[in-house]
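subagent[fold] <- orchestrator: predict structure for attached chain, return tokens only, no commentary.
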Amino acid sequence: MESYKYEEGSESLSRFLDKGPGVDAIFCAAGDIVAMGVMEEARKRGMAIPNDLSLIGYDDILAARLLNPSLTTVRQSFGEIASVAFDIVLEAIGGKLTKEEHVLLEPELIIRESA
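subagent[fold] -> orchestrator:
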């Protein structure tokens, strides 16, 4: 499993900005931790969030609401994911899973101050 790190956010923003101006919004699908790294690098470069750079993370970890500015993020219910996965596993074990099943779980956008 890939583990996304704080430093990757900082490094990614540096690479974007070093290629030229024009980046004014980032969605960190890699997670809130990576978004926090983006936020730090933006500050180091004198960028104000959200005025110069809008930022959205993914996961809605506790730290997201404690940041300044607080991080807009996407919340995906891990409890709901686990429950659906458990039900599918039970169906498979019981021989009741006869075809591939596609499940769509709607995430929730948590609007805070960074976007």
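orchestrator: received. Logging for downstream: The domain at 6-76 is CATH 3.40.50.2300 (Rossmann fold). The beta strands are 25-27, 54-58, 72-75, 108-110.
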